[in-house]
Amino acid sequence: MTNKTKSFLALGLLSVCCYSLATEVYITRDAQGNIVFSDQPQSGAETHKLKELPTVPAFKPPVSKTPEAQAPQANAVSYTSLGILTPNDQYQLPSGLGGELQVSGILTPKLEEGHVIELLDNGKVVDEGKQTLFTLRHLNRGEHKLQLRVVDQQQKTVISSNKVTIYVQRYSRLNRSGK
Predict the structure, then answer these.
(1) How many Cβ atoms are within 10 Å of 83's Cβ, its own excluded?
(2) In a domain, 24, yes or no
(3) Rounded to whole angstroms, how far apart are CA atoms 142 and 168?
(4) What is the pLDDT of residues 121-139, one digit of tens each?
(5) Which of 31-35, 72-76, 96-100, 174-178 has the lowest mean pLDDT?
(6) Gap between the Cα atoms of 24 and 44, Å rounded
(7) pTM for the full model?
(8) What is the CATH number of the domain that holds 130?
(9) Lowest mean pLDDT among 5-9, 52-56, 84-88
(10) I need a surface site. Which of 46, 119, 129, 141 has the fewest CB within 10 A?
(11) How many domains does the chain have?
(12) Residues with Cβ within 8 Å of residue 93, at least 6 apart in sequence
């Protein structure tokens, strides 16, 4: 036998010995009658053999031969979600707030370089930025459908949020009682 073969045999024997030692557990009871598990034998301990856990080999995806499949696309973005957190759908903005409203959203994962978040009110862009928090001021009374969307450099929509409908109540000169 060569030295290399002897080394492999010794390594294999050592791993088998360590495996058999690692699978023995000793069970005893303490003074209060509680069960105690240990890897150290004690007087009056029962030996418990552990069964080997089933294992599954790791999945290895097939390697593609084409260079296009191996190179990741630089402009491929995979946003998983975009949503409006506040206000809630069917929210009614009271008269006393002067038509001012904060719209907050959430985007997962973070905004990519070169992309912009737009806030739409009834389908028209009213604000844009790199954040998901916007303040709308002087909203006209009536129904407003709010939506967030992410657009790229070519102004193409990458992802859109759900639409949230709000109702703005404002005082009218025709209603002098303020009700």
Answers:
(1) 14
(2) yes
(3) 5
(4) 999 999 999 999 999 998 8
(5) 72-76
(6) 15
(7) 0.55
(8) 2.60.40.10
(9) 5-9
(10) 46
(11) 2
(12) 87, 99, 101, 139, 166, 167, 168, 169
